[in-house]
Every structure is written in C-alpha cells, then in structure tokens.
Amino acid sequence: MSMTPDTSALSVPPLQERKPQRPQRVVIVGAGFGGLSVAKALGNSVLDVTVIDRRNHNLFQPLLYQVATAALSPADIAEPIRRTLGRYHNIKVMLAEVTGIDRVNHQVLLNQANPVPYDRLIIATGSEYNYFGHDEWRAFAPGLKTIHEARLIRQRLLLAFEKAELSRDPKEKKALLTSVVIGGGPTGVEMAGAIAELGRFMITRDFRKLAPEDFRVVLIEAGPKILAAFPDDLTDYAHAELEKLGVEVQTGRMVESITKDSVIASGETIFAGNILWGAGVKASPAFRWLGLDPKAGGRIPVGPDLRVEGTSDIYAIGDTALGLGEDGKPLPALAQVAKQQGEYLGRALRNELLEGRKPEPFRFRNRGNTAVIGRHAAIFDFGKRRLKGRVAWLLWAIVHVYLLVNFEKRLLVSIQWLWRYATRQRGARLIDENAGNIVPATTQRSET
Amino acid sequence: MSMTPDTSALSVPPLQERKPQRPQRVVIVGAGFGGLSVAKALGNSVLDVTVIDRRNHNLFQPLLYQVATAALSPADIAEPIRRTLGRYHNIKVMLAEVTGIDRVNHQVLLNQANPVPYDRLIIATGSEYNYFGHDEWRAFAPGLKTIHEARLIRQRLLLAFEKAELSRDPKEKKALLTSVVIGGGPTGVEMAGAIAELGRFMITRDFRKLAPEDFRVVLIEAGPKILAAFPDDLTDYAHAELEKLGVEVQTGRMVESITKDSVIASGETIFAGNILWGAGVKASPAFRWLGLDPKAGGRIPVGPDLRVEGTSDIYAIGDTALGLGEDGKPLPALAQVAKQQGEYLGRALRNELLEGRKPEPFRFRNRGNTAVIGRHAAIFDFGKRRLKGRVAWLLWAIVHVYLLVNFEKRLLVSIQWLWRYATRQRGARLIDENAGNIVPATTQRSET
C-alpha cells in the first residue's frame, strides 16, 4: 500500500480539452450506511451521481433483531432510498442487480437493464452471513441481514409457540419451545436476549398450556467468550445478564450439523423449533466483479484513500472493503466505519473532481462499540471509557433513535419503545398467511 | 324462518342430572369483528370458550388498503388474537385450520390437531373475494382481504414504478404506470383514490424519468354506478372526486379477461403493471362444513336468534351468515353487522346458558355507511342524514382511529396520519427482497 499520490486517478482532462463538457459520473453500488453517506456528500453538486441497489429501501440493520422479535415493524427501520435521496437533484436511484463491472469500458453491468457508465465507481455492497462452507444450513438457520429474514425468523418463532400450544407430546412441546442462536457476536447476543424476554412474556401472558420450564434459549459460541470484540469486564457482565434472562450460554462449542429441527454442537444434539445464525459475516461477492481472489473473507483491499488497490477509478467502503486502521490492523465491519468512510469519500471526491485537490488519507475515529442484552442491560466500549447496565441501556436507546434517519421513524420507534417499556407488550406479532410456505429469500437466487 | 322459540336448543340438562358438572363449551371459529365480539361478551364467565382461527392476528380490514398503498405497516392494523383475548381466563385460542364439523359427535375437525368438542358452535369465518368462476384471475388481480395480499399489491405497485423508471420503451413505461382496479365498491374506490395520490406523489418527488401524463388509474365497475349501496348524490360526489384525483371511472363495463399484464373490459384491452380485484365477495366456504347448498353466495341462512336454520347448537354471524333485516332484505356484509351480531350473540348465550333466559331476536342498528376517496374527501350515509367532503373525511379518520382496538395502535396510526397529512409522505414503501418470487397465498393452499 503506497502513500504516494496516485496521479493516474486524475482522469479529468485539463479544462480546455473538455468538449462537450459533461458532468463527471459517479456510480455508487449499494445504499447502506456507506453508500448513502457518499451519495449525500455529493448531493446537489454538479456531479452526475447514480445509486444502484437491488432493494428499494435502506435498512437500519442495528435494529433488525427487534423486527425479528416482534417489537418493531419492518417499515419502522427501513426507508425508501428514493425518499432519502429525493432532495438531491443530481442523484438518480436505480433498483437493479449488478452482475459485473466492465473495467475496460468503465461501466457497471446490470441484470435486465442497460449498463451504466462511470467515471468513478464506489462499491459499498456490505456483507452477508458466512456459513463456512455449509450453505445448506442457511435454510434451517437463517441469518439476520434483510427484512425478509427478519420476518422469516419472527414467523418461525411465533409459529413454534402456536404449535407447542396445540401439541400433546411433551418432547415435541419442549423442542418447539427451544431456540438456538449460533454465534455470540452482538447480533447473536441481542437475538438471544430478545427471544428470552419475548418467550417468557408470551408464556406467562398469552398461552394457557405452555410451561416456563419448557422454554429454552441456547446461545452457542465457538470461541472462548461471547462478544469477543469487547473487553473482558463487559463480556463477563453481558454473560451474566444473559444467564439472568434464562439464556444458556455455551462457549467453546463447535456446531457440527444443522437440520430442520436440530443442532448438533460438540457432539450434543439440541432439538429446536427455531434456529438462528449469527456466526460470522463475509463480504458481499463484489470482489468477483473485479476478478480478485476471495482472500480475507472476500473483502476488497483498499489504499488509504479507499481506492481499490490496482485501480484508478474504483473505490470500496464499508464491510466489503479491507481497509487498515492506524494500528495496521483491518478495520472492523461496523456501521460507523462504513459511515465515516462514506462521508470521507464523498468529501474527497468533491474536492478532487470539482476543485482538483488531493485527499488526505482516511482515518477512522472510534465512536464506541455497543451491544444490548435486554431491558436495562447494555454495554458500551469507548476505548478508554466503558459503560454497562441501566445507563448504557438508556444511552443505547437514545443513540439508536437518534441514528434512525428520518424524523417520523424516530418518533414512531420512540413511542413504541416507551409503550413496550411500560407494558412489555410486543406490537408486531404477526404470522403471515402463507407461513407454511416461507423459505429464505437467499436460497432462491444467485449470489450477486 | 319461524319466530317460535326453539326449545330443542336448551341442551343444558336440568341441574340434578349434571354429574360431573362441567362448564358448557362454546367454540368460535373465526376471530374477525364478529368472532371477537362474541368471545369478549363471554369473557371471564364460567363458560369454556375456544376461539379457532387459521391466522394468529385479528385484522382491521377497513384500513387494509392503506397497507397496500404504503401508508401503514401491517402491524399497525393487526393485533395478535392471543393479546386481544389474553385478559379472559376462560378463553383458549388455537391457531388451526378447520376442515369440517362433525354434527353427530358435536365437534370441530381440524387440520393437524385433535377435534374440538362443542356444546355451542359459532361460525364467524367472514368472506372472500368472488372471481365469479374465474379463479385463475386471482394470481393476476389479487383481492384485498389479508396482510399477505396487501403486501403483494404494495410490492407490485412499487416494483412497477421502479421498472418503469429503468425502461426505455415508452409503451412499456406507460403500461407499467397503469393500475386497473376492478370493482367500484368501497374497497375499489379507496384503492383507486389512494393509488392515484401515491403515484402522483412518487412521480413528482422521487422519480426522475417518469412523466405524470404516463400515470393512469382506471376503475372498472360492471354496474351503472360506483358505490351502489350509497344514495345518488353521494355517489356523484365520489365519482367527481375520483376524477379530480385523475382516476378514470368506467362504469357499465364487464371484465372479460385478465392476464399477467392486461385487462380486457367490454372489448378494450388495457395494459397494466398493477391489477387489483375488488368486484364482489362471497362467504367463506363454511357452508360446506354443514353440508348446505352454496346458494346466496355461500352465506348460511340464520334465524332471528342467529341460529343456523335446521340446527339447535350452531350459529353463524357476519359476512358468512345470511340474516334478514327488519325490512326482510338480507343484511349487508359490513363490519358493523358482524360486530353487532357478535355482541348480541354473546349476550344471548350468556343469558341462555347461565341464566336459562330466552333471547330476543337480533335487530341491526345502522351506524352509518362510509367510504373515503382521498385527502379531504369522504362520504357518510346515516340513512336520514348524509355527509360529504372535508367534514366527512375528518369524521371518517376519527371513527377509524377510534375503532382500532388497541391504544398503542391508535396512537401510532394517528401520528402517521398526521405526519402524512403534513408531508404527503408514505412511510411503508417497502419492496421485499424476494419480490420477484411473490405469489398470492391463496393460490397455494386449499380453500378452507
């Protein structure tokens, strides 16, 4: 990785040569935290910006577990991309699937639409769950990356309870009331905690024939501790809080097999009505578009200006990029990294394309890492300072409401949270009519 | 229909014969407006009440069109049945599908669960859309009865706009931006009005390459006027308001054929990206469980005490029942009829089973019939008095917020409405990840 300015990148010819003068075309693939930050920073400039996403909405993934556990509605944490970017006259939005990049002719290839030419291309396609070579597990143990998956998990969870209520076989009943969460990262911990709270509430309030002692939530982590990215004191606290909620935390256990209704981990079989996957992510397959090796979990190596190594007009940001921090270690796959990289890149492109200025290298500023375990229990790691318990929980709630892009959503989520806080009720306990037919969306289509 | 009291119905034996004494079992099939009203009226009594529904939620259907047009989230207008009835210790809820009624052994037969015995059975299974012998149209022109269908319609509508934005073929573009609503009843009128408002808003605010003149909403009605149940002056007003919104109202036109992307009505072919069915309902197939003829649209004839004719322990209420008003005409298939019948029947059963008193015959009290066309435009028909315009619209909104069962939902819906009123934004413009694979749920399973 060289710190020398890469002058080949200045593809804008001197002013007198430009005829007819046309605006520089910036194409952004992916409208998550990273892609949207770039787009906003380029909004209402003379640049011709196109944002391409295969979904029409921007999803606030940190709260997706609340959709999966029936606390929020999908629309509470999702916003149409067109709406987010509607105020910028120079930004076009395309709902389309990228199939490749033609680096020779500088264009993005799309499924069922014409190629889109670019002068600068930003890849911000995020990450997906890594089943470590066992993609057949996906159907039985969905991850939590999309609204479809969140709904799927919600359906399965609620349906398992309904089936248990009807069952007269004590063994079956117990299995249906068992949830297994695989992976002790923040998503796994949040899911396990939320399921434990929801399940206990439903059993005591809504079901007549279910016994609290039949209800079981198991959190399986292969490593020696959960929440590996956090310091030990916070991890210990989270571990203890999960156990207070009734979650069985099993560390150091490897999952060997997953079927429709069971998990085998370190030789022990657990029958379960609901199995969830949160055991690690890999970058989106965008590296294939560039003909790169899938090393480092498919993340695309970038230089200090976030340019993809070996290219002059392509950048990668967020989970799909492999950038290095000041300590020389890879930056974590966190929303705040994506957002900061997006803001930086937007500024850098403006400076370079409009004013001909060279960018400073990107520097990540740690805003604090957080995870929530349950009511009144969360952890915050700000590097030097740490926070846990009721205050951390309150801060977590405030930060997340604040981060929700849109005012209406903020207000709606706040009200629902306050209501739930007071009543412990869950508002979005819906089972779809076609619950019997649900399959994970991801098994139905190709991997682009 | 005889007004003579039917003493055979008093199946409760004299007190001294009851040994061991067990509570009378009331089974309610269907948890819509009717079924829930009965259940609530029987709540916290000594009766043993079971509510069976194939869905886990109670749906506020009058606002379902707002889910289909991206104004509300499904969970805003749906509540888990267990939650609604959770406070009554004597009511059990079962998520199950009824397959038949064994009148000899007095039990309800279920799919994948044991039969449920009853002393009194209430059928409150509602209605479904009637495709008048063309059930193959259902896949192309979904009706609006379930959350799944509302989501399906929302997906198709939003996806058609996205495809139109990408299209370079002017003909295709125009077709994709055309919506055809079949049926000029309240649902059809509400859908046409809401689509017109949503489409115009999206084109002016969010899309760059769509022209307002390519956007078209066609409302097709076979009869001579829309909203046939309303007096002429209100119908004329609604017709004019729809045209102000840009809806083409075509009355006296018969639909002859529907394909994936076109409707042929009275010889003319309309190509459309979005086709909707609201052209008449028929009762649920519950009449088959009783071995009745599907006369009168499958509605089950009931006496003045809502007992199914020819039975002593089975009742039918709501859309699935054919009851007669004081004028000797069949009662309309309206939520208020179902609700009043449910409340009446609950009281009647309490009186009879607990106190041995005979019920008075049921009398329907018209609370006013309403339909909403769009912003500031609605109609009310109270029989003698009529209301239209801005005041009717405000009253419509107040009544509907009031009727939403639950406090949280009321508040959430009110806030979203106020926000939308101020901004004209739509909050729930979500296209699912698996949008390409969506099919109507109703084509995927049997008709029970």
From TrEMBL, chains A, B:
Superkingdom to which the source organism belongs: Bacteria
SUPFAM superfamilies membership: FAD/NAD(P)-binding domain
Class of this enzyme: oxidoreductase
GO molecular function, one term: oxidoreductase activity
EC number, UniProt record: 1.6.5.9
Keyword Endoplasmic reticulum set for record: no
Keywords: FAD, Flavoprotein, NAD, Oxidoreductase
Catalytic activity, as annotated: a quinone + NADH + H(+) = a quinol + NAD(+)
Tagged with keyword Thylakoid: no
Ranges for domain FAD/NAD(P)-binding: 25-342
Pfam families named among the record's database cross-references: Pyr_redox_2 (PF07992)
PANTHER family: EXTERNAL NADH-UBIQUINONE OXIDOREDUCTASE 1, MITOCHONDRIAL-RELATED, NADH DEHYDROGENASE
Family: Belongs to the NADH dehydrogenase family.
Name this protein carries in UniProt: NADH:ubiquinone reductase (non-electrogenic)
